[in-house]
Amino acid sequence: MKKYLILCTLAMLFVLFGCEEEHAFRLHTAPEYYQGRASLPSGQQIEMTESDRTNVLDACYPEDAITRVPDGERLLISTVKLSQPLTTTASTEVFPTATFFEVENQTYVQCQADTFTYMKQIDALPDSLTPYREQAVSSSAMSNLRVAQPHEQVHFTEEMKKPVGNEPYPKRHGFEQTLVHVTMPFNGSFEFTFESPESRETITLPINESSRQPFLSLGLGTEVSQDTQQYGLHLSSDQTLYEDVLRPQDATYDRMLGTRQASTLPNKLVPNERYPLFSFSFIRDGKPYKQVVSITYKEETLLHGDRLKTKMRQQFAHRRHVVAHELALIGTESKDAPFLHHANAETVQFVFQAIDRSKAVATAGTPAPTPYLTVFEGICAQTFDVSYTEDDVILTNTKTGSHFKLLRADAERWRDLSIGQANN
Q: For residues 160 and 156, what is the distance between their CA atoms, to the nearest angstrom?
């Protein structure tokens, strides 16, 4: 795991650059604190073992990222998501999301971290995925577009009449002449532009593990509730319900006047080219408006080299968490386990600073009432045994057995905060 030091952010730079003085921080990748699940193209879900989670982290190590994937048929094997239950919040982006695929019998992985993506050629799949290699499905590198057939248009209007959401269900209507089918490429995004003489707004639909279906059907629809009339692009991956909707910021209208499909539509979406799909007119506040809806396929920008490493440092430098615990952690505990005490943001900052300032000593003290402290930074973690000697607080690296004493002022604040004694 030595190669992962680059992801353990600034605290590990002392170790990375080989300072003579021993320091307390020796953060390391910690697959034991992750949970992982693989999604096969068939929809089957597979739980990943700890060794497989290690393999996924290794696969997404950013060294040797490639600038583009060689031409050829792409065979999608599986998409794996790893998460840390102890630290994950609603606002935390999952990392890594790793999509494994093959081109010309060579294995690749696409790793996604929040706003950036990179790819690598790898030697082998995680063991859990190897039996499913023969079930890989073809995934296009390009995107094609097809106008819906008449019977599909009728089906679209019928599906749009079905209730979705919560009662009272809004009344929905689909405009059959706007329905098109788009084949979903392996990666990238679609941009839908709503343009009028007065305004222009673009809505982005990323292509990821949840949207990577064979195709996407979309058409203009309206929803009328008790107090609102809205229009939007209604989407479906299986031509049912069309409950996913993309709307511009102001999608209200008083009366819909009509729609018209673009006179010519392409068979293939050339990357970065904008193609009109249809136009529609409506009345709002007594004024007529016309919107033209266009589609653009954007290829994924793959990061590599120093730019990728810089982005990763920026991504994970401030993703920190501190847990004091009365029992040793075994596997991935529930975040709500009663023996865990999660520090608040201010305490987290202090704990990292205090550990960074600590000095090596020869011996430990008497175990503290809450004897363990685990710190997380990015994908890395480290556990300390906590002990006291009179007024001192001593942290012991559980892997190396090295002891570190906090500075006197930090020890006083540590005790004042009662770190680990209650939820902070």
A: 6
Q: Does 420 score more than 60 pLDDT?
A: no
The most distant pair of C-alpha atoms in the chain lies apart, rounded to whole Å, by 83
Q: Which residues pair with 399 in a beta bridge?
A: none
What is the model's pLDDT at position 19? 37
Is residue 186 within 8 A of residue 141, CB to CB? The reply is yes
Q: Is the CB of residue 11 less than 8 Å from the CB of residue 377?
A: yes
Three-state DSSP state, 330: coil
> Count of CB atoms within 10 A of residue 109's CB?
22
User: Are the C-beta atoms of 100 and 109 separated by less than 8 Å?
Assistant: yes
Q: How many C-beta neighbours within 10 Å does residue 10 have?
A: 13
Q: How far apart are CA 215 and CA 225, in angstroms?
A: 30
d(CA 15, CA 58): 20
Question: In this structure, are residues 182 and 269 in contact, taking their beta carbons and an 8 Å threshold?
Answer: yes
pLDDT at 71: 84
Q: Are 277 and 293 in contact (CB under 8 A)?
A: yes
Residues 116 and 303: beta-carbon distance below 8 Å: yes
Partner residues linked to 403 by β-bridges: 361, 396
Dist CA 320 CA 324 (whole Å)? 14
3-state secondary structure of 276: strand
Which positions ≥6 away from 409 have C-beta within 8 Å?
Answer: none
The tokens describing 119, both together, are 């790819």
Which residue type sits at 293? V
Place of tokens 């209730």: 163
Which is nearest to 326 in space by CA: 373, 364, 365?
373
d(CA 360, CA 136): 53
Distance separating alpha carbons of residues 276 and 184, to the nearest angstrom: 18
Q: Are 67 and 119 in contact (CB under 8 A)?
A: no
- pLDDT digit string, tens, across residues 67-104: 988 888 899 999 999 888 888 766 666 778 999 999 99
DSSP designation for 18: T
Query: If you write DSSP's letter for every residue of 248-280 in order, what string do you get?
Result: -S--B-SEEEEEEE-S---SEE-TT-EEEEEEE
